[in-house]
Amino acid sequence: MTQSAKSEQRNQFHTVSLREILQAMPKVDLHRHLEGSLRLETLAEAAREHGVDLPSYDIEELRPLVQVVDGDPYDFHRFLEKFKLLRRFYSCREAVERVAYEAVTDAAEDNVQYLELRFSPASLAMTQDFSLDEVTDWVVQAVNRAQRDHNIAVGLIVSVMRDFGRAVAENVTEVAIAYRDRGVVGLDLAGDEVHYPGKPFADLFRRAKAAGLGITVHAGEAMGPERVYEAITVLEADRIGHGVRTIENSDVVQLVLRRGIALEVCPTSNLQTGVVRSLGTHPLRDLYRLGLRVTLNTDDPSVSNTTLTDEYVVAIQGIGLTMIELKNIIMNGVRAAFLPPREKARLEKRVAKALGLTTSARFRWRFWE
Ligand SMILES: [Zn+2]
């Protein structure tokens, strides 16, 4: 072999990076908001197309208004502010359908095999006074189309916003229950955790649970473990959105353990909302090693400028999880999915095989099975 042929052969060898390994892994995302998944290109392009009034139609000028950027203070309410401008975008059926379709497409491209995509019908409906039913219908149809076009399964979660008031919450809950057989698998409580406790919504969440929906509640994010306690004991949550501040109270840790409650952890979001000061001090590893059922998710990919692959990189390089811990956390995601038992078993088998794990009894959750 000549010298140049040898060097050419050497150049063909490619060191596989950690990112590439993680990108290729099958993934499960249980906590992703549709309203936080808008591609910036789509925002600018479709806004111009549909005559949405925006301060600019230039992506770089829009970026700091809808995405956390360098120099932004990491603060919970500031993070929520980013969604206000985004609400203007839902100006017509095409815009809502496009966002829903692209959110699923982007997850599939990141090798997410099962996605639970949550959306707030009231947020999508409010700008143009659409009905909650019609916006839900548009999301369901677009998501079904995206599922057929890509290699991904999607369950929808309807979000009740804490700060939209009781009357809206009632209507949103009814819509979620009505769509139970058409793709909606769960009900979520989201929004401003600081000023709006969960208790006023208790009867709605119990009604949804009785109707067969999974219950997940944002808690223990901006507020402490007392909100996690409330979510479990008053709202009957099966899963907690974030829940990272559970670690601050050992009684609540024990309650979460005993009930087999899954925590939907989203590290980059936690950093940007100021819940943790740095990734190095994120409690994910401690929660996992205490035996809690932690899962890893994105929250708002476009607002946080992240992907699930990015979150896996963060979990290993920023937080210090091992590869096997990460794989177990992916399996936690499968087991905490709001899927019927048979579908869950199929997904479990497929993902475990792709991760090189066996679905042994030690991974089984007594609570779920
Ligand atoms: Zn969230």
Main attributes?
369 residues, alpha/beta, TIM Barrel, 8-stranded parallel sheet, 50% helix, 13% strand, disordered C terminus, binds zinc ion
Report what the structure shows:
By secondary structure, the protein is an alpha/beta fold. The protein has one domain (17-363): TIM Barrel. 50% of the residues lie in helices and 13% in strands. It has an 8-stranded parallel β-sheet. Helix 2 crosses helix 16, helix 3 packs across helix 4 and helix 6 runs parallel beside helix 8 (132-149). The chain is globular, with a radius of gyration of 21 Å. It starts with a helix and ends in a 15-residue tail after the last helix. 47% of the residues are buried. Mean pLDDT is 92; it is low at 361-369. The protein binds zinc ion. Residues 31, 33, 190, 218, 241, 299 line the site of zinc ion. The site of zinc ion has 6 residues, from strand 1.
**What Rg is obtained from the alpha carbons, in whole angstroms?**
21 Å
Q: Beta-strand level of the residues, as a percent range?
A: 5-15%
Low-pLDDT stretches are 361-369
Helix content: 40-55%
Number of helices: 18
